[in-house]
Every structure is written in structure tokens, then in C-alpha cells.
Amino acid sequence: MPFPRRMIASHVASHLDSSDTIFIRNIALDLPVGTDAFGRIKSQPVLISITVYLRSKFDTAAGTDSVDESTIHYGKLSKAITASLNRSAGTAEQNGASLSLKDVTAQVEEAVFAANEPLRSSIRAWCIEIQLPKASLLGSGVQFTYLDEHRYGESTLTIRDINVPAIIGVNAHEREAKQRVVVNVGVESYGEAKINGRYVLLEKTVVAAIEETSFETLEALVTHIMSRLMKNAEAFNLIKHDRLRVRAEKPSAISSADAPGVEITRNFDT
Description:
The structure is a single chain. The protein has helices at residues 10-13, 59-64, 74-94, 101-114, 199-211, 218-231, and strands at residues 21-31, 44-54, 123-132, 141-148, 153-166, 179-190, 242-249, 261-268. By secondary structure, it is of the alpha+beta class. It has an eight-stranded antiparallel beta sheet with strand order 1-2-3-4-5-6-7-8, with helices on one face. It is elongated.
């Protein structure tokens, strides 16, 4: 399974738990964002979600049962996001280019504040999630999450559920046949994320790292994958203080459980 659905940094998110929130989940569009799973610039399915955290309660909207200035008209916001991204997509396609994940994030942010100018000072934080369900050859998709609290932004790029057959295990029967290993890899960045367009190369590196091994333990496998990622950090545009997370599972290992697994996190500090 993918990494748990949690806010990017607990020290930022914990004090947002009590905030009233307005969210839109999975606006479905077809846009030229990043590249497809083969590294080509072309339109692909995109799912966009936005959560807005308010400084104040939307009590007056609740009390009057109306969409007033204490809340956000999510219908208008959805239309604004869709219109803005479709315009940019048209321009990008005319120029044979694509929108970056940063471009999409910036336009969603702009739509949030443009559509809710009276509420600007009442917005405490916002979280934008961009999913590219077809951007991974062997996984279930690519996800980019961005959290901003006016002072700074934090982002996480995740490639979910990369499935690779491998020799892995301590038992005799596990040494005779390959079994499915499911890997999730994430990169957490503070400030401007540099890696967001490199997910195809990131996946290729993970797959190659798995295919060249025949470890007995998942602990050795995830450590090996992490080592390969760190050695190729420059190619992924990793910057100092970026944090990498690698999770690996063996769905076939225990018949009475979904899967055993391990996860490690390392900081990139060079």
C-alpha cells in the first residue's frame, strides 16, 4: 500500500487539525503536465484536490445556511481552477510544451485567492494534491502534494506501488522463484521542489536497483534502493535537506496478511 495519507510535516499540520476546512477532491482534467510514463510530453489524466484551512469558523454561513464571506463557494472555485488550467494547457500544447507540477500548483493557488478575495486574510493554510494516475509504468501513479502556510511551502513527490518481481526471502522456496515486491518512494522538500519533473527517472532507478538484487531481507533491499537513489541525487535534482522515503512490501509472503513490509527515511545533506 502507499505511504499513509498524512500531512507533509506533522509539526506544521498538528495545529491545523482544529481548523474548519473546505475541500474539493479529485477535479478530473486531461492536461499536458510533466511527462507521461514513457517520458513523452503529451496530455494525460490529472486529478487535482485542494483543501483550505480557515483561521476562523464558518459559523455565519452555518447559522444563516448561506454561502457568505465566512466560507468558500467550492463550485466557483472548481470552475476557476478548471478554466485557468485549461487555458494554460491550450497555450502549452500550441508551443509543444507541458506544464510543470509547480505551474499547476501556482495556478490552483492563484484561483483560490482570486475567487475568494474577501476571505484572503482568513485563509490559514492550503494543501494541493496533484495525481497523475498514468504517469508510472509499473506503479499505480505519481502524486505531488504541496502544503503552504503563507510563510513557506513543503512538498512531497511520491511514486506509488511500483510492482517488480524479484528473488527476495530467507526461505528455500523464495530462492527458487521471483515474487512481487511493491515499492513506494517519496521525496519531501522544503521550499521549492526541484525534483518534480524527474519521476520517470526516479522510477527507472528504483526498478533497476531491485532487478539487480537477490537479497534475503527487505531491510537489505530498501537500504540498497536508498543507496542507489542517493548516488543519483544530482540527476533527480535533489537539494540539501530533501528527505527520501522508501517502503517495500511482499504481498505473497504471509497468507494471512496483506503484506509484511519495511520503511526507511534518509535526509540528503550533501
